[in-house]
Write a structure and sequence with these properties.
oxidoreductase activity, acting on the CH-OH group of donors, NAD or NADP as acceptor; Short chain dehydrogenase; alpha/beta; 241 residues; globular; 17% strand; oxidoreductase; seven-stranded parallel beta sheet; Sc_DH/Rdtase_CS
């Protein structure tokens, strides 16, 4: 483990997919990881594997869809685990359906998890970063945050909103020594495609892997403090699927 500088990261959606891959990539790089997700068993398995790589790793089961609980619980996690240097807002859900056919309850659920939970995680961590005059916040957006796709309305709106949040936050917090990055991957082969809220038939073998995205996030986090990638679009070599 690299002991020259001890870093602590908080990663949401860390029990599977991109979040799990980020947790393990960070652990291999010597970054201690606080892992947040709904699934306690899966989260603890990831924490155990990260610990075996030589870092401190702790599972914190939390339903980020319960918006009113997110900010105080994220603050409590940071207080328990240690000062968070890197926040990776990765938790989210996929959703397909036309704008006309999307029920209000579904719309709100997508916006709450994909956008508002990230906003609340940021508010939970930001005061500590400001107090130290440093920190890195990485929001996992999507190609759907810069390009619309018919039948993905609620999802696109949530990711466009996340992009606006990232850009605004970057402008506001630059003077406080805090870096903000929005990562926009194209299609990634994750369990999202197996959920009952997504109806899409793509060639998953042609997609990015979670590990490829995780390496990009790691390299972004490890940039010298005077450098920042504020927006990164990462696409499969096959293009938009």
């Amino acid at each position: 483990m690299n002991s020259t500088k001890q870093r602590h990261a908080l990663i949401t959606g860390a029990s599977s997919g991109i979040g799990k891959a980020v947790a393990l990539a960070f652990a291999e790089a010597g970054i201690h990881v606080a892992l947040v997700s709904r699934s306690k068993d899966k989260l603890e398995a990831v924490a155990q594997k990260a610990t075996s790589l030589g870092v401190k790793a702790q599972a914190y089961p939390l339903d980020l869809g319960e918006i009113d609980q997110v900010k105080p619980k994220i603050s409590a996690i940071a207080s328990d685990f240690g000062a968070i240097d890197i926040l990776v807002n990765n938790a989210g859900m996929g959703y397909t359906g036309t704008v006309m056919d999307t029920p209000l309850s579904d719309w709100q659920r997508v916006i709450d998890l994909n956008l508002t939970s990230a906003f609340q995680c940021i508010q939970g961590i930001l005061p500590m970063m400001r107090a130290r005059g440093s920190g890195t916040i990485i929001n996992v957006s999507s190609i759907a945050g810069i390009q619309v796709f018919p039948g993905w309305g609620a999802y696109c709106v949530s990711k466009f909103g996340l992009m606006a949040l990232s850009k605004t936050l970057a402008a506001e917090e630059r003077a406080n020594g805090i870096r903000v990055t929005a990562i926009c991957p194209g299609s990634v082969n994750t369990p999202m495609w197996d959920t009952d809220t997504v109806n899409a038939d793509f060639d998953r073998a042609a997609m990015l892997t979670p590990e490829i995205v995780a390496q990009s996030i790691l390299q972004t986090a490890l940039l010298p403090e005077k450098a920042v990638i504020e927006e990164l679009t990462l696409m499969p070599s096959a293009g938009t699927l």
